[in-house]
Write a structure and sequence with these properties.
The protein is of the alpha/beta class and 336 residues long. It contains eight helices and 16 strands. Strand 4, helix 5 and strand 5 (130-135) form a beta-alpha-beta unit. The chain starts with a strand and ends in a 14-residue tail after the last strand. The strands form four sheets. It has a six-stranded parallel beta sheet, covered by helices on one side. Strands 6-7-14-13 form a four-stranded antiparallel beta sheet, with no helix packed on it. Helix 2 (19-35) runs parallel beside helix 3 (53-70).
Length: 336
């Protein structure tokens, strides 16, 4: 395994700016690697200010001396970002791996990665040392969701504009998801981010899955990068779709980027009797209430809402009784 070192940005800046503390820190890291029989270290200091670039190189150079003697690997994590345009050329030469952290919310993610790599390709740097670091956790949004299924379940709560016992034959019933007037939800494929997005309350949640990973793996092949590093630290287990596509790429050394089947991303209503319009909705026409025209024959009917992220499917079902027009009357509220 590898030892990961990280920390608060301000603390890291102070540490790097002091030659004595910097030297002591590199020694402490070397001792930890040796004592725990690690194979090396992953340095993840986040987005340090540009004026710390030279100090970071000095720190890694000190650590490189200790690592070379013992055969340890040094990997550094970075993330392309405006205002932090480091020149990594010197570091690429002295580290074993440069891991570029991928964030789907960084606008056009593949163009961002292209722009990051281009200067080093032109400069003749060894981009074969560069890997993409991708998390299997949901990115973006203000709330914490364990997986896409929990997000889909939030969208699949059904709201029926009718009281039980008051639904009659041939009646128009408004169906909606259980949202407030200010709350909206959608599921769509973001062509720019190359990711499925689930949108709730104007918050966009980017879903890593087989589709987004197929584009990342194709990018790695195109530029002949070293490979893919998976961050599963915030996931209970590897998502099955991601495991399949990564395993297939590893076995065949090739990948075909694939987008999800569009209709799967359209939430749809299914009724066992009567008719419902619109049957499905998408980000193109916006989420809108549906109207269920109840059947002409009294009975018990199933109403189901199905929502998917292209891989997982979540459904919510309501069983409703439809009475004849003569008997479907609201129950009076008793008075004291």
């Amino acid at each position: 395994g590898l030892l990961e070192v990280s920390g608060n940005t301000q603390d890291i800046e102070r540490l790097l700016s002091s030659p004595e503390i910097r030297s002591a820190y590199s020694t402490a890291i070397a001792d930890l690697i040796r004592d725990n029989d690690y194979g090396g270290v992953v340095i993840n200091f986040g987005l340090l200010p540009l004026n710390s670039e030279a100090l970071l190189r000095e720190f890694i150079s000190e650590l490189r001396g200790k690592a070379s003697i013992n055969g340890w690997k040094i990997n550094v994590v970075t993330r392309p970002s405006d205002g932090y345009d480091y020149d990594w050329s010197t570091l690429i030469a002295i580290v074993d791996g440069l891991w570029i952290s991928v964030r789907y919310s960084d606008s056009d993610i593949l163009s961002v990665l292209d722009s990051f790599l281009l200067p080093y390709i032109v400069g003749g740097d060894d981009i074969g040392k560069i890997s993409l670091l991708a998390s299997t956790s949901i990115q973006g949004g203000a709330s914490n969701f364990d997986d896409s299924k929990s997000l889909l379940e939030t969208l699949s709560e059904i709201k029926i504009d009718a009281e039980p016992g008051s639904i009659s034959t041939g009646q128009n019933i408004i169906l909606d998801t259980n949202t407030s007037a200010t709350r909206d939800g959608n599921v769509y494929w973001d062509e720019i981010a190359r990711s499925v997005v689930i949108q709730i309350d104007s918050e966009s949640y980017f879903i890593p899955n087989r589709f987004s990973f197929s584009f990342l793996l194709d990018f790695i092949d195109f530029w002949n990068l070293r490979g893919l590093v998976l961050d599963i630290s915030n996931s209970e287990k590897m998502p099955e779709g991601i495991a399949e596509v990564v395993s297939g790429w590893f076995d065949t050394e090739s990948i075909q980027p694939v987008e999800p089947f569009g209709p799967y991303l359209q939430p749809c209503w299914i009724v066992s009797g009567g008719s419902v319009l619109p049957h499905c909705w998408s980000v193109n026409n916006g989420r809108q209430p549906a109207v269920w025209t109840t059947p002409d024959t009294p009975g018990v009917y199933a109403l189901k809402l199905i929502i998917s992220d292209g891989e997982s499917f979540v459904s919510t079902q309501e069983i409703l009784r439809v009475d004849s027009l003569r008997t479907a009357t609201p129950t009076a509220t008793p008075t004291a």
